[in-house]
Amino acid sequence: MAIAKAERLMNLALCLLGTRRPLSKRELRESIEAYLEAGSDDSFNRMFERDKDDLRELGLVIETVENLDGEVGYLARRDSNRLPPITLDAEEAAALGLAAKVWQQARLAGAASGALQKLRAAGLPEDVDPYEAHSALEPRIPVHEAAFEPLMLACRDRRPVTFAYRKATAAHPGTRTVEPWALECWRGHWYLAGWDRDRGAERVFRLSRITGKVRSRGGRFSVPVPDVVTVRETVAGWAGETADRSARIRLRSDAGYPLRAKSTSVRELGDGWDELEIPYGHGLDAWLVEFGPDVVVLEPAELRADVVERLRAVAKG
What we know:
By secondary structure, this protein is of the alpha+beta class. The protein contains 11 helices and 12 strands.
């Protein structure tokens, strides 16, 4: 069975690499003997989707292209699947080993381990153990959102995606069609940066607000991917990290510890309330709403009005 699958994957890879135009599922089925022997269309479709995912997992960049008739085709361009010679010194190998450890708690653990094995086969120094402990501290990046893996693969393969997204001000999620550029972790939360086709602008999405499945779409990106994607800077600006003003709020004494960590002054008011002064920048109103009845905005007036408006929108549900 393993030999048959390996042969099938090899034949599929050769078909995708050898074509100059996208091949449809029908054409691929007619070209590969194992697919012709599939008992039904459903059986073939399941086999093909598994094989396609396996090839992508192995590193083959497979493009999905939709023609004018709406038919989806597949190809693997040679220029997208050609790597330069790989040479790594001991320090570079150690850095890769440390990076692989980051993913050991995520579903990417197997992929990270497999990548290091491929690098060793491609010339990783034999006297270097990439998993050797180089520090008493080992990095960990928690990945709890189901949307992380499909978005990571979409960023890698340059595939547009569609997902349901719930804004902080909305009671119900809305559909977004996005060309994903990069994923980044900031202050314990994962964010996706990309081109929002519906709004015709660059946007950043918090993965914890994505509901349901992330679905791939056919076709190529409509705008070029920037050389540098500033996810952290964008989110920091929204969260008030670059604020040049201050806001004054009331906060329950036993709540809102993230707000207390950002505060520049705290004064006890009694009766279970404190008064805080915190940096005020774009997006602070959305953050304050998350604390619900534990926060009351005192000033400025526009911030108070924005928070009240958001709370009313949530209450209308």
